[in-house]
């Protein structure tokens, strides 16, 4: 579904991603792990058209994404849940979801939008209770639920998630990861960037490891979970799958 070949991304004279290649097959859940500054988010920004200064090849369902605008990429079937959620704080929960459905409205698919509202509200019941509340007044966990729901309203073929567990309590992280696995089981193809490497790999089919902008390792999730280098660098002490990095 997605093929990236020799991708090089830069911010001015600073090269953030060096010749990265990867692939995502239809129905897969693929994780990209690595330390801060490894280039993970930069890679996702290039895929979604939010970073213009890149070289190489990004092909989604046989369509070259080079030069395509972010709205065109969304219409092609890619939705992103950005790092830090980036919801529309002054708008209500319902209006945020409507913004996610913008491309569906443009296609005149109002009945399908209503179905998607119901799907998101069933997945995240708290959003139904908060439907008319300003999004900026939600808790961090509720905002992450809204960000995921907003992305799903575009009916993506590929869902891209950037650090969905960041800053959340372990109980909320567990719930978010359960939702991700449910979506994958329903046929949504997922590309996941996540610092909680253990939790990410445990729900993934395959994984890629980035270090300072370079792809240094790839393999099945099971292989990476037992790889000594991965364990030493990214898995750390076994506090449990959903330890969020804060002091116990």
From TrEMBL:
Domain ABC transporter as annotated: residue spans: 2-237
A GO BP annotation: L-amino acid transport
Tagged with keyword Lipid biosynthesis: no
GO molecular function: ATP binding; ATP hydrolysis activity; branched-chain amino acid transmembrane transporter activity
Keywords: Amino-acid transport, ATP-binding, Nucleotide-binding, Transport
Residue stretches in coiled coil: none
Source domain of life: Bacteria
SMART domains named among the record's database cross-references: AAA
UniProt similarity note: Belongs to the ABC transporter superfamily.
Name of the protein described by the UniProt record: Amino acid/amide ABC transporter ATP-binding protein 2, HAAT family
Species this protein is from: Desulfocicer vacuolatum DSM 3385
